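hey m, so remember when u said the tokens were messed up on ur end? i reran from scratch. heres the input so u can diff it against urs
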Amino acid sequence: MNTKFTSIALILATGLLAGTQALAGVTREQVQAELAQAIRTGDMPAPGDQGLKLNALYPERYPAKQAQASLTREQVQADLNKAMRDGNFMITDNGLLCNEVHPDMHPNV
């Protein structure tokens, strides 16, 4: 019984130490700024057992999240031009690509 209690205590202590080491590089001001931003955006857990955040439960109270574009306009245009050259775009409703329907018009990929 005593070894069981000791092992559980050691596991809990190790977990607590690991948690404090993860927060060691964060200042009090950074934590307060993150909390203020979470409150402002509604990114806080809502009360109750639903497991929702406040911005999901009351979307009219908080600003909508801005979607970040992962590609620039030039990158999208370059991808489109490459797909057009290679015939790597759909031309039929059944999911066939142009280079599958007209293999003689496009280089082998």
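this time it looks ok to me. Helices lie at 2-22, 28-41, 54-57, 73-86, 98-101. if urs says something different then somethings off w ur setup not the seq
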